[in-house]
Amino acid sequence: MMLTTEDPMPLPKDQQRLLRVRAAPLAVALAVSLGACSAAQNVAEGGHTGVTPASSGTTPTTSGPTPTPTPTATTTTPNPAPAPANLACRVLKKGDIPRDSNNDPTVPCRSSHTAQTFYVGRWPARLFKPPVTSADPQLKSYAIRHCTRAFNAFVGGSPLDRQTTLLTWAFFVPAPSELLRQSNWFRCDVISGWTLAGHLYSLPTSMHGILDSGVPDDVRTCFTRLFVNNGTKKDPGRYVPCTMPHAQRAIAALQLGGKSDPFPSVKSQESRLNAWCGPKVQAYLGNPSSYKWGYSFVTRKKWRSGDRFGTCYAVTSS
Question: Which residue ranges in the chain fall short of pLDDT 50?
Answer without folding.
Answer: 1-62
